Amino acid sequence: MDTRYKGLAYWRNVYTVGCHEVSVNFCPQCGGNMLLKKLKINEPERSVCSVCGVVAYKDPKVVACSMIDRDERVVLLKRDLEPQRSRWVLPGGYVDRGETVKDAAAREAKEECGLVVEPQRLLGVYSYPGNIHVVIVYVSTYIAGDLSAGDETQEAAWFSEEEIPWDGLAFNSTSDALRDYYKSKKGYQK
Known about the structure:
elongated, seven-stranded mixed β-sheet, Nucleoside Triphosphate Pyrophosphohydrolase, single chain
């Protein structure tokens, strides 16, 4: 097996490696061939084992982020990885199996920008057609630490609302979360 695929989280037909899907042709339960089959009228085709009938589902990837505000400024990170290298995002990353989303948001903030935070309230859940990611953003309280760029980050910076590099944001979820955050601060409901 190619070493790039070590540590795959799911045994199901399609694994997610980073943001890429990798097909599996054989059933991990019995070794039978996996075939595409429509199981229900209003659902997409699914991979089903031709021998034992195991169904493989394409699971979404859950991403946890923190909206960290200190002195009316929020943290954004300039990515040092593709996709969207050199564009700005909120501190965040994939939720590990067995980890709570809140714990993942706090862990990712520490790893990516050196800040200890406490996720307080859910800001929003962001998903888009054709995208495998479900992004969950918490408003997080700064506890300790000095802002610094982690190993997946070119730069980490605090921005006021007026300084946000709107044209340089990496993902729709980043811009949507920032807009929702500033609306909520002004007393508007989503």
